[in-house]
Specification:
The protein is an alpha/beta fold and 255 residues long. It has a domain of 170 residues. It contains five helices and nine strands, in the order βββαααβββββαβα. The strands form three sheets. A four-stranded mixed sheet has the order 4-7-8-9. A three-stranded mixed sheet has the order 1-3-2, with no helix packed on it. The protein has a two-stranded antiparallel sheet with strand order 5-6. Helix 4 links the parallel strand 8 and strand 9. Helix 1 runs antiparallel to helix 2. The longest helix has 20 residues. The radius of gyration is 18 Å and the shape is globular. The N terminus and C terminus are likely disordered.
């Protein structure tokens, strides 16, 4: 199982129990689980998982001569996340489009304050990578030996949030029971009607904790900065290969 460990905060907790969240696969099994990606969350640090937290499992390092601006790099990151949603998964793709539109509109509405805060060094859009990072097809723990798949998961710093993309049909009993198990485990389940995704605004659908994601952040960062890119390794051509682990992150490719 591939894993990514979120970098420690400036004041890490003296002891911490990390939570591993597999993602990027529809079904976890003895074989599928070996090929799943995983993010390790340091819960005691109360540090959100943000878009700038990497390294990302890109197939190869991005070409920054082509991705020169923040907008191009955000679009590249969105397409990478879409690649983890599975084939023929239109609602998840629509959600990612809507989520990144929401990031842009949220920054635009706070433009005056962010420009003043940036002091001419940073533009409002530079804070976009501080938004919470969505984990497609994430599997969240509800018991010691039980995980429940979600359309997307977020770690807000104090709790897990699961996005449930709701269609017109009534969910089956098994799915209702899974969602109840998530709630009982303390996961915030956020219902997002699929019909509101195309061209819609997520502002009224996402919880308040998602907004003003730049607060508490001293300076904007990027998963495309020199230090972050140094951690990105091309996907190995042979199954079973192991990528060298950079400082602060441990990545093991499917084996």
């Amino acid at each position: 199982m591939s894993s990514i460990t979120v970098p420690a905060s400036d004041t890490p907790a003296p002891s911490d129990t990390k939570l591993a969240i597999p993602y990027g696969v529809s079904v976890l099994s003895a074989t599928a689980g070996e090929g799943a990606l995983s993010v390790a969350i340091g819960r005691a640090q109360r540090m959100p998982l943000r878009l700038w937290h990497g390294p990302y499992p890109f197939a190869e390092p991005p070409d920054l001569t082509r991705l020169k601006g923040t907008a191009e790099r955000m679009a590249f990151l969105k397409e990478h996340l879409k690649s983890l949603c599975g084939l023929w998964a239109k609602p998840p793709l629509d959600f990612l489009d809507a989520y990144f539109r929401w990031i842009d509109s949220t920054l635009e509405s706070a433009r005056a304050g962010l420009e003043a805060r940036g002091g001419g060094l940073f533009q409002p859009r530079d804070w976009g990578f501080a938004a919470f990072r969505p984990l497609p097809l994430a599997h969240l723990p509800v018991a010691v030996d039980r995980l429940v798949r979600t359309d997307f998961a977020f770690w807000t710093g104090d709790r897990l949030a699961a996005i449930e993309l709701v269609g017109e049909s009534t969910p089956r009993r098994q799915r209702r029971e899974e969602l109840d198990a998530l709630r009982q485990a303390g996961v915030a389940v956020i219902d997002i009607p699929v019909a509101q995704l195309a061209g819609g605004d997520l502002a009224a659908l996402l919880p308040p904790s998602f907004a003003r994601f730049w607060e508490g952040v001293e300076l904007p960062k990027s998963p495309f900065g020199p230090a972050a890119l140094a951690e990105i390794q091309p996907a190995p051509a042979v199954l079973g290969a192991t990528v060298p682990a950079p400082q602060g992150a441990e990545i093991t490719r499917p084996g």
